[in-house]
Amino acid sequence: MTENYKTALSETWCIIEQYSDEDKKRIPEKIKRYIRDNRNQDYNPNFDVNVHLKDLELRPETKGLLALIYQSYFCNEQEKIEFELLLKENARKKQEELSQKYDINKTFEDNYQRSISSEENIVEDNTVNNNTNEKEETQLTTYQEAPWYKKLFTKIKNLFRRNK
Fold first, then answer.
1. Angle, vertex CA 72, rays to CA 69 and CA 78, nearest 5
2. Closest to 56 measured CA to CA, from 42, 46, 65
3. For residue 92, what pLDDT band results from cuts at 50, 70 and 90?
């Protein structure tokens, strides 16, 4: 078990300890024992009882554990449905945010736009060079392969040179 998770269990245990006796009874002993036994014994968070739960600076793992406890032991059927819808909506928003952030098409489009702008800069540079009367003539050079008999003659000549 990671240290992060143990710390989250400590924060969860601290919050459960602040529940009323009636609310504590709603949580099964097996769950409370698991949280108590596996929490980080060296970390004892002290949360202000007067501060609302939303305003506390909790780890994401702690928020997840508290949400699971709330959904499993404190919600009635209607609240469970609403809570599940809220969780699905939050997951959908997170997925949408990630898909926008890591959208492949957008990435390629950005690269394409950058390449177009760099090509435009090159064209602008070339027009500037042309305007300053510094014309560089560039032509394609044609490569002609030597005929087969010249290649053969060259290889034979190289054989005689090596033997000397």
1. 125
2. 46
3. very high
